Amino acid sequence: MVLSNSRADLNREIALEQAHVDRVYDNLNVATASAKSLAESGREIYVSDRTSWTREEDSTALFERDAFAYQAARRLAILDAEHEGLVFGRIDLADDDARYIGRIGVRDRDYEPLVIDWRAPAAEPFYRATPTAPMGAIRRRVLRCRDDKVIGLEDDLLDSTRATNLPIIGEGALMASLTRARGRTMRDIVATIQAEQDEAIRAPYQGVTIIAGGPGTGKTVVALHRAAYLLYTNRARLERGGVLVVGPTNVFMNYIERVLPSLGEESVTLKAIGSVASDTLGMSSERMDNAEAATVKGSLAMVKLLGALVRTPLNDHPEALRVRVTVKGEVLTLDADALARIRDQVLSQTKLNRGHDLAFNLVVSALKAKLPEDVEISPVELDEQVREHPSLTRFMASWWPALSATRVLARLSDPRLTHRLATQFTPQQRESLSGSYAWLRGSESDADTGRGWSIADIALLDELVHILGPVPDEKDRELDLFAEGEVAEVLTTADLLRLERSKDPAEDPQSTYAHILVDEGQDVTPMQWRMLRRRGPQSSWTIVGDPAQSSYPFQDQTTSALDELIGRAKRRTFTLSTNYRSPSEVFDLAARVITKVYPDAELPRAVRSTGIEPLLTGTDSAGLPGALRKILLDLAGTVNGTIGIITPPSRLRDIQLLVLGDERLREFEDRLIVVTALQAKGLEYDGVVVVSPDEIVAEAPGGARVLYVALTRATQRLVTLDVETSQWRGLLD
Ligand SMILES: Nc1ncnc2c1ncn2[C@@H]1O[C@H](COP(=O)(O)OP(=O)(O)OP(=O)(O)O)[C@@H](O)[C@H]1O
Prior knowledge:
The protein is α/β, with parallel strands linked by helices. Among the domains are: 7-46 and 59-180, no CATH class; 323-400, no CATH class; 584-731, Rossmann fold, CATH 3.40.50. The strands form six sheets. A six-stranded mixed sheet has the order 4-5-3-2-6-7, covered by helices on one side. A hairpin with a 5-residue loop joins strand 4 and strand 5. Helix 5 packs across helix 6 (219-233) and helix 13 runs antiparallel to helix 14 (356-369). The chain starts with a strand and ends in a 10-residue tail after the last strand. Adenosine-5'-triphosphate is lined by residues 174, 177-178, 182, 187, 189, 192-194, 197, 213, 215-221, 546, 549, 580-581, 682, 684, 712. ATP binds at residues 213-220. It comes from Tessaracoccus bendigoensis DSM 12906.
C-alpha cells in the first residue's frame, strides 16, 4: 500500500482510470447507436405496416414492435441523461478483482460488465464496506468526472491488514464532497453514500419504511436514492402503479427535482403537500394559515366538524325543513325530525352527492305512509301524485342539492354556524377557524376560484370530496331519475344494499400510487395523512422525518394518524446518525436550543468542523437594515455559494425589499435567498443569517422547534441577528 498526496501519483492514476472510462464511453456509443436504429426501425415498420394491418397476427406483431421501440427510446433517453459522470466509483476486492460502479450498467461486446449499476447487488460492497467490516474489499475509489473526463479521485483504504500495492490517493471522497459549496438545487450522493444510509436505501419494498434522524443526516437524499433503487428492483410494479414523492413546499420540490433524473429516473410524480389533491380538486395551494388556524384545521377533530357541516342542511330555516304535499285533499307532512332521520339514514348508506335518489325515494315512502288508510287511491296513482308533486320537487332542490366541497367548506366563514357546530374547539379556536375564511364573506363565488384556500384547506376539501362524492353530472342525474321512476313502492333493506353495491368503486376521483414517499413527515397533520392515505390504499410507504423539527404542535395526534396509516403493515425504522450538513460548531449551538425544549431529539454527530463559532449579534428595529447589510457583505466575502436569510413571516416582505433595493447587495443577488423558517424546511445554504430568533419562535406553530430548523440550515457559517429582544438565548444556558 502506498499512501500518496503527490501530484504525479494522482496524474498517473487519473490517466489509468481515464483509459477505462474511455472504453466505457466507446461501448456506450455502440449501445446508443443500436438503440437508435432499433427505435428507428420500430417506427419504420409501424408506419409501413399501417396500410396492411388488417390481419390479426399483424396487429399483435405491431404491438410487440411498439413495445420494443418504446424500450429502445427509453434506453436512449436514459443513456442521454446519464452521459455526464457515468462512472463514478471503483471497488478493489481481493485477488485483483476491480469493479467499476456507475449510474447505469454498461457491458462490452462480449457481455462482460464494464460498469455495474449502483443499485445492483454487486455494487453493495462499494457502499457497505468499512474499515471495521471490509466485506473483502481493499480500496474504495471515487472518480470525479466532468462530462467524460476524469478530473480527480479520492480513495478510502478499507482493509489495512492485507498486503497490497494499491496506491491510496487523497483524503476521502466524503470530506471532499462535503466541503464543496452547495448550489441552489440538491445533488445526488451516489458516489459517497455511507453504509448506514445504504441500508435504508436497499431496505425491502413492502410495508412502511421510516427514515429518521436529526437535521442534515441525509434523510431526504437517502429517501430519493431509495425511490430510484425501488424502481430499479421493482420496475414493472412501480412503473405501472406509480411512485409519488411528497414534500412540504414547491420551493422544496424545486430543490430536489433534479436528484431523481440524475439517477436515471423520470417516472416519478413530485408534489408539494398543497398540490396532492389537485387530482380531485383541480387546484392546489401554497398559502399558509396563521399558526392557530393551521393547527385547528390540521387536527383530527375536523373530521367530526366536516361531517356535521354536511349533515346540516344548507337552508335551516324552519319552513325549509318541512315538506308538505296534498293528495286527494289530504295534507301529507314530514317534520324536521322525520327529515333529519331520513338524512342520517341516507348518509349512513351512501355519499351525499350519490344519495339524492335514495333520499327522494325515502321521502316519498314516508309521505305515502302518512295517507289515512280509508282514502281510496291505487298504489300506482298515489306514487305518481307524490313523486310529481311540484312542492316536493322544490323541497328536494333546497333540501338535497348536489354540493361541491368548496361550497360546504365556505360555510365555515359564517361565525354563528361555526360556533354552533364546532363544539369540540374552544371559543377562541372557533373564532380563528371562522376568521380564516373571512375572505369568503359576502362573496360566495370566490369559493370556486380556488385563489384564497390555504394548504391546510386542501386536505379539508379533499376530505369533503370523500364525504360528498363527486358532484354528479346533470345528464347522469336525469338518467338516474328516470331509472328510479321504476322503483318499488316500499324500499326494502335489500334495495338499499343494492344501491350501495351498484356504486362503481372506480368513480373515486383520486389518483393512487404503488409507493408513496413522504418527506418532512413530522409536519404532515392528521388531516393531511388521511388525504395521503386515500392516494395509497394498497401502497408501500417511505416516511422521512424528525419530530424535533416539527411545526405541528400535537405530536400524539400525528403519531396516532400515522399508526392508523401503517395499521398491521410491516414497519422498519432506520435512524441516521451523522450530520453531513453543518459543521460541529454550528450544530452544537442548535443542539443546545433543542435539548432544552425537546429533550428526546435525535442529536446526530457532525462529521466536519470548521473552527469558526456562530456569531450572535443584535440590533434595535431602526438599526436592522444597516446591521443586516453589514452581516451579508461579510458573509459574501467569506463563504462561497448561497446565503440564506431566514426571517419571521412578519418581516419577510421588508427584508426582501431591503435586499433588492440595496445596490451593493444586488451585486451578489443570485446568491442571496430570503425565506421564512418554514419555507427553509429541508433546504440548506452555505452561509445563514437568522433574523430575530424571538419572533421566529413567537410566530411559528412549532415555536422553538422551528427556530431549531433555522439554526440547522448552514453548511459553513451561521450568524444570528436579534432585533430588540434576545430571549431565545436563555435556552443556551
Ligand atoms: N453520503 C453523503 N455524501 C455526500 N453528501 C451527503 C451524504 N449524505 C448527506 N449528504 C449531504 O448532506 C446534506 C443534508 O442532506 P439532507 O438534506 O438529505 O438531510 P436531511 O436529514 O433531510 O436534513 P433535514 O432534516 O434538515 O431536512 C445534503 O447536502 C446532502 O447532499
